[in-house]
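Reply to dn_fold:

You asked what the input looked like. This is it:
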Amino acid sequence: MKMKAKQPRSGRSRLILTMELAVILPAATLVLLSARHLQTIQRDRAVEAAIQRDFSQVLAISEKQINHKAYALMDDVRNEFPVPGEACSETLDRILGAHPYVAHLMLYDPEHGFVMRSRPDRLKNDPGFRDEAEHLSKMMEGWWKLEYDDFSKKLSKMDEKGTPYHFEGDWMPRGDKHVYASTAIFLRTDKETGKAAIAAITFDGDYLRDQFFPQTLDLVMSRNVAEEQTDKNAVIMVRPKSDSTPIAYCTGWDGGNAEVERNMESVFPGLVLGMKLRGTTLAAMGQRFMHTSVLTLGGLSFLLAGGIYLTYRNVNKEMALARLKSDFVSNVSHELRTPLSLIRLYAETLELGRLTSPEKHQEYYCIIRKESERLTALINNILDFSRIEAGRKEYDFRETDMRELVRNTLESYRYQIEQHGFTLDEKIGDVPLLRVDREAMARSLVNLVNNALKYSQDRKYIGVNLYRENGSVKLEVIDHGIGIPPHEQSKIFEKFYRVGDPLVHNTKGSGLGLSLVQHIAKAHGGDVVVDSAPGAGSKFTISLPVNPAENTGAAASA
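and this is what came back:
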């Protein structure tokens, strides 16, 4: 019995559907938000005072969380810091390379003098960074030389009390502008000799502004909201003491001034934490109903912009698919040329009669056969994919002994498995006869085995299991290869998709094998799933229903 798969929904239909949803969903959301907005009541001064107290408490908690994260980063660097007398360019550069959030490292003791290393790449290419390094070097060296004894005693007492760092915040010159940087100063003691030196680690100003503060502020706010410490509409920012303009803020900050502020005196002296409610102020909360129409228009514009963004993203997805198809053509061309070139090379060698031993003749014939089988498999995959895309793929369902089918398929593929140095472990149990397309199921098994051959490095193992479980027959292919990250496991069955691992991209492939396996499995009324972890290998399982009626019905709707 032959069944034909239906043609999938076209990209144009998907695009039209997305555009319709981009208008309907924002409009429906806007109506719901407006109804919710009309249900709110004005808050009196007592409520405003309560919100201010809440904000003050949240700012105190947030500063502790920010400081804790900064301490963790500094501790990682401190543990690698050289002892007095062993600081050198190579050691300090290694630390800088391992911790990109560090801009400068410094060490001073009277015996060995002042040593400072800054990021070499920045010094070479960024004149403003050189200005910062020169400014910091002069300031720290002069200070430490004058106050080494007193300052080292102070640091030692702080360390004994559980406060290992003294932080200095400063606005560093970067050409015609200034950036904020915080320097952690601590006492580095050699436990064997007892010698001590003053050491320092300076956060990179660009890292603080662009990564540390935005990410940390998002983290602390999400945690505070989850623990019901504050309102979900609250937002937080960091600004200099002398300027109201924020240098960093969390997601959702919409400008304006903070309602409640707190000076940061510990890790980031010279900065201020500020908090407010997004979209309003405490003073304006009593007048919210007067601005309903303005807020409604603003919300409509925002939601429509989101709809436009969804449409734009869908168009980009279609363009990305076009690029993947181009890459597919390139990869397939390469894979076609490789076996053809080998077949031609060995055939010409045989034709010229340059071989003298029968063993060599047999070896060359085996290579030609193997490469022709590889070429045939690739062409069959492409033809199947072409038929599926055109909606012309047909399956010939016949009552089949799956045990015999699996054994014969593996036997024909055994030479190639052994040539690659793999161990093949077969566990074929008793299963009932199934109505399947023999050629399609054999190609699914070959595709999964070939996938294991390609993406296994040191642990060369392939396991094939066939067994019955409840109302289905399961065919498993197990490898000990590179594995698949969890966030990519839902995408590997998409056509043309290839995992973003360097080994995958260095291995030529069409990106169609797993897509075809899934299509074949679903056409038989079953499915294929993967269980994998990076570095731990993968297990692909094809499930086929035992009931012939289920098999036929699923095939008709594939």
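The first strand starts at residue 2 and ends at 4.
Hope that clears it up.
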